[in-house]
Amino acid sequence: MWRFLVIQLLLLWQGGFLFYTACVVPTGTRVLGSAAAQGAITARVTDLLNAIGVVALAVLACDLILARDPSRRRARCRWAAWVFAVACQGLLFYLHLRLESYMDDERRYVMVLPPFYPTHRVYLWTSIIQWAACLLLTWWTLRAWRAEDNRGPQ
Question: Is the model more confident about 32 or about 58?
């Protein structure tokens, strides 16, 4: 049941990010007619994605603490990917606040254009880097679980 929870949180968080980025943003921009209109939606969706990310990272930390992986190297890789994902999450929270400070109070329009787009670009790259770290973390987690299962009960 524990592993099911871990996988479901990763699917919700990282799958939600990927689906939103690949499908919802381009479709919303096309339907709404502008990236600015889509941005008003994205400002709210990223609130949720970031909150889910915190929960997923906390559950992953528990999994790392409870791990019985016989490979120390893989355990170090998992921890490194997790730390990297956490650092990215912290940066995403900071950048999200900065981006909101450039918008009106209702987060519908960008009011201060010059710093918005470079900050947004950093936000996007940070999200992509975090996604890559989570892919590696997922890969190593699945391999660790397999090794734990092959090792048998202790």
Answer: 58
| Three-point CA angle 67, 71, 75, nearest 5° | 55
Which tokens sit at 80? 């490194």
* Burial class (CB within 10 angstroms; exposed 0-12, middle 13-18, buried 19+) of 23: exposed
Q: Which residue from 43, 72, 54, 67 is spatially nearest to 13, judged by alpha carbons?
A: 54
For residue 37, give both structure tokens.
């209109």
pLDDT bucket at 152, cuts 50 / 70 / 90: low
Rg, the chain, Cα only: 18
Please name the residue that has the structure tokens 């329009």.
Answer: 109
Whether 141 has a pLDDT exceeding 60, the answer reads yes
- Look up the pTM and report it: 0.90
State the total domains in the chain: 1
Q: What element of type H or E holds 62?
A: helix 35-66
Rounded-to-integer distance, Cα 76 and Cα 102, Å:
39
Give the domain extent around 91: 2-151
